[in-house]
């Protein structure tokens, strides 16, 4: 199953052409195997042919002659093997930043916009089905950018993270041991520089990032209060995730008064993880200035070089029962759109992901 067209443009190898790709949409084993063994790529014109045609560099121009006589010839195709890695997608991650990728940006954003008509790209957990790269073996497990489809063919596996602990639930690599978990660790430990005994407030505290910020803070010996958008989430924060206190921000008419109630002596660290309306009242913004408080944003991508140390530490926490992770798992690729949309109204309870194949 796929959202990708079967005839796609490619600029791989420095030349433009058409690539026939049936892997993503095929349920037929023979068809899939033939795709795994190589791609069919549209033939490229020689420099002389290009000059004869007026030297146009446009991709459409480049591949037009194959069909100019009405039918393609065998020589219009080149069988390419050994350059790609084919992946079976096991779990896909639904993340708030994907909303931004659905918007057309005039100025480039920190991530590229989605391409209409192509499979959605996002974080996921994958198993290698066939590798054309010497350092990647068939069967290896990775997490990283992949497609919202059953199988994905990639040319840059260098961007993927090899999964070290496949004895832990693989779905954790979309959350706890993946990008959101690492975001919580970097944001809390590196950006907030916490001290034992400090007072920590986490908004949207039951989400993929927030639930871990609270638990990391507890492990540091901090006093932690979280806010969430339903009574069910509030109960989970207090009874499952170990927060000292939690409140339903939708039931509070005066957020400043609520914070005063839970932190009579003030807040040392406020970790904002709300995917929607920011809970920061204007009065807090004012205090930031007068009390010379540091406010800092960050992008997790800038810290990925520190990921291996994080993976070891957090895997150990899981084994020792020191971390609990709430997941909200939608079953099947067909449930992915609803799962993603649900993020933006807080329908998810814990990390939202999609199980494409549990193998
Ligand atoms: N800087 C980075 O590198 C980086 C990396 C990862 C994530 N992030 C950001 O961190 C935040 C949390 O991410 P996450 O993965 O934990 O997301 P998440 O699991 O979806 O949690 C976010 C929570 O936000 C709340 N929410 C949703 N819509 C809302 C709305 N319209 N108004 C108020 N609250 C709303 C929901 O909780 P309630 O029901 O409790 O309201 C939801 O559970 C997001 O803003 C994300 O973009 C940043």
From TrEMBL:
Keywords: Oxidoreductase
Domain Alcohol dehydrogenase-like C-terminal: from-to ranges: 208-281
Region Disordered: start-end pairs: 1-67
One Pfam family named in its UniProt record: ADH_N_2
InterPro entries attached to this UniProt entry: ADH-like_C (IPR013149), ADH_N_2 (IPR041694), GroES-like_sf (IPR011032), MDR_fam (IPR045010), NAD(P)-bd_dom_sf (IPR036291)
Compositionally biased region (Basic and acidic residues): 44-54
MF GO annotations: 2-alkenal reductase [NAD(P)H] activity
Residue ranges occupied by any Oxidoreductase N-terminal domain in the UniProt entry: 70-162
Keyword Oxidoreductase: yes
Record carries keyword Ligase: no
PANTHER family from the UniProt entry: PROSTAGLANDIN REDUCTASE, PROSTAGLANDIN REDUCTASE 1
Quaternary state and interactors: Homodimer.
Protein name: Uncharacterized protein
UniProt organism field: Spirodela intermedia (Intermediate duckweed)
